[in-house]
């Protein structure tokens, strides 16, 4: 067994497992010997006596390969597994230990399907960096035990499954920095460089980067970023501001990346977020050039990149977000800071009405904003928590002209235009 897998198994009992049930993680651990009363964790409670459960953890040493495999694995399992396998997201982590998160899936095999499922798992384990464990119920139905899948036929080492306390942080928070949110151009470029062979387009994206960047250069004219969920009126307002202020209008991701955006939107979070992070630095360079001649208006920038990434990485209610003031909400040290960031806020029903009347195709994340209220609330709250500069909220529900007048008041007050 690879060295990092051996280490993982040795530290089994310090790890916590989380399984997603109804968009909220349930936590459990394993112990070599059971202490106290055996209480089956609720994720096992619907499983029949003769059924088994399995967990699959992606254990690739290389994070780009690992993340892509984890992403593809869901599709593979969804198409191959028989109905009723109850496929769920799961993870394994050491509480409070940054970088300790491993992602995977949890499933159950009903008695009639067991040989089909075991064939699928055997094939997966033989060909891929995945660690499979199986879970079975004791005779009296009171206890679940876990053992490594490849050992289960020979002399298996069994661990007792026990419920675990809810950790201080949502598990995804442990691996968020430089996996979901990048705090330097170098970190984001590292990820894209590693993808060069599998996604040839990355070379063209990296080729758009300027040879040098100076985040400390102070622009001569104000730089105003307009942020908000889709259909809150960013395009409408940014175009009006450009005309009213005689400003230059830019956007992030910049126009020069549009040919490759769809390609990166189909990639797992690590690669997708690295693409958007790099896009911000290309826009920053364009801002630097234009802000020596006129005010600059920017349609989306860093707040969008970080807020969507943070809100997607965690699941469940807003309370699962990293706490206010946490490191993930800081501004990257090497990225140009705008003079003002205006966040357009809108009642969800009015936003839906505008989306419907616009009638354009929606991206997966836009669909999610529509259907998943918790996701929308997490994005909005993450926007508010990101600092350096923090957003100034502006109610976008009045007419387009009134919103423009309010935005101009804010800009004149803050940027002395
Ligand atoms: N203040 C307003 N009152 C009523 N309708 C508006 C207002 N502002 C914009 N709209 C309309 O709402 C729709 C969405 O606006 P817009 O395209 O400007 O939003 P957006 O935030 O740029 O969206 P996206 O991020 O998806 O590109 C458009 O049909 C637009 O005409
Ligand atoms: N600076 C940015 C801009 C956008 N994103 C991601 O794109 C999606 C929204 O883009 P629209 O063109 O529909 O406005 C959103 O889901 C973000 O994930 C980003 O990350 N950074």
Count of distinct structural domains: 2
Helix content: 25-40%
Bound molecules: adenosine-5'-triphosphate, the ligand Nc1ccn([C@@H]2O[C@H](COP(=O)(O)O)[C@@H](O)[C@H]2O)c(=O)n1
Strand tally: 13
Q: What general outline do the C-alpha atoms trace?
A: elongated
What structural class do the secondary elements suggest?
Answer: alpha/beta
In the CATH scheme, what's the topology name of the largest domain?
Rossmann fold
Q: What distance separates the N and C termini?
A: 65 Å
Write down the oligomeric state.
single chain
Task: Give keywords.
417 residues, alpha/beta, Rossmann fold, 2 domains, 13 helices, binds adenosine-5'-triphosphate, binds ligand L45E5XJ5
Write the topology of this structure:
Blueprint lengths: L2 H8 L5 E6 L2 E8 L20 E7 L4 H18 L7 E6 L8 E8 L4 H14 L2 E8 L6 E5 L10 E5 L21 H10 L6 H7 L15 E5 L6 H12 L2 E4 L6 H8 L3 H22 L5 E4 L2 H12 L26 E6 L2 H11 L5 H8 L1 H13 L6 E4 L4 H16 L2
The structure holds adenosine-5'-triphosphate and the ligand Nc1ccn([C@@H]2O[C@H](COP(=O)(O)O)[C@@H](O)[C@H]2O)c(=O)n1.
Report what the structure shows:
This protein is an alpha/beta fold. It folds into two domains: 2-169, no CATH class; 176-415, P-loop containing nucleotide triphosphate hydrolases (Rossmann fold, 3-Layer(aba) Sandwich), CATH 3.40.50.300. The protein contains 13 helices and 13 strands. The chain has helices at residues 3-10, 63-80, 114-127, 185-194, 201-207, 234-245, 258-265, 269-290, 302-313, 348-358, 364-371, 373-385, 400-415; strands at residues 16-21, 24-31, 52-58, 88-93, 102-109, 130-137, 144-148, 159-163, 223-227, 248-251, 296-299, 340-345, 392-395. It has an eight-stranded antiparallel beta barrel. A five-stranded parallel β-sheet has the order 10-11-9-12-13, with helices on both faces. A hairpin with a 6-residue loop joins strand 6 (130-137) and strand 7. Helix 11 packs across helix 12. The longest helix is centred in the last third of the chain and has 22 residues, at 269-290. The radius of gyration is 24 Å and the shape is elongated. The termini are far apart. The model has no long low-confidence stretch (mean pLDDT 90).
């Amino acid at each position: 067994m690879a060295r990092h897998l051996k280490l993982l198994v040795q530290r089994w009992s310090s790890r916590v497992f989380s399984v997603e049930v109804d968009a909220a993680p349930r936590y459990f651990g394993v112990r070599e010997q059971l202490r106290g009363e055996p209480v089956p964790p609720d994720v096992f409670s619907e499983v029949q006596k003769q059924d088994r459960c399995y967990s699959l953890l992606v254990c690739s040493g290389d994070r780009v390969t690992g993340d892509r495999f984890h992403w593809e694995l869901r599709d593979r399992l969804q198409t191959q597994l028989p109905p009723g396998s109850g496929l769920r997201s799961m993870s394994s982590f050491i509480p409070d230990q940054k970088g300790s998160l491993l992602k995977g899936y949890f499933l159950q095999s009903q008695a009639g399907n067991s040989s089909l499922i075991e064939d699928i798992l055997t094939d997966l384990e033989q060909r891929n960096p995945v660690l499979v464990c199986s879970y079975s119920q004791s005779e009296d139905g009171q206890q679940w035990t876990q053992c490594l899948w490849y050992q289960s036929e020979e002399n298996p080492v069994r661990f007792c499954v026990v419920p675990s306390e809810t950790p201080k942080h949502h598990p995804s928070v442990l691996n968020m920095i430089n996996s979901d949110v990048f705090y330097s151009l170098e970190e984001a470029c590292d990820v894209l460089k590693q993808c060069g062979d599998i996604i040839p387009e990355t070379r063209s994206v990296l080729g758009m980067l300027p040879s040098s960047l100076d985040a400390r250069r102070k622009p001569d004219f104000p730089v105003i970023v307009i942020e908000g969920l889709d259909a809150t009126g960013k395009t409408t307002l940014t175009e009006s501001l450009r005309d009213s202020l005689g400003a230059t209008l830019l956007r992030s991701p910049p126009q020069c990346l549009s040919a490759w955006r769809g390609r990166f939107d189909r990639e797992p979070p690590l690669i997708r977020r690295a693409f958007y992070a790099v896009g911000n630095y290309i826009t920053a360079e364009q801002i630097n050039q234009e802000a020596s001649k006129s005010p600059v208006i920017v349609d989306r920038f860093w707040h969008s990149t970080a807020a969507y990434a943070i809100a997607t990485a965690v699941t469940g209610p807003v309370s699962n977000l990293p706490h206010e003031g946490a490191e993930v909400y800081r501004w990257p040290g090497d990225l140009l800071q705008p003079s003002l960031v205006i966040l357009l806020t809108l009642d969800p029903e009015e936003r839906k009405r505008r989306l419907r009347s616009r009638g354009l195709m929606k991206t997966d994340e836009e669909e999610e904003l529509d259907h998943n209220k918790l996701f929308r609330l997490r994005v909005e709250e993450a926007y508010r928590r990101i600092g350096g500069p923090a957003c100034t909220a502006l109610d976008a529900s009045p007419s387009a002209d009134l919103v423009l007048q309010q935005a101009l008041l804010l800009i004149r007050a803050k940027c002395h235009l």
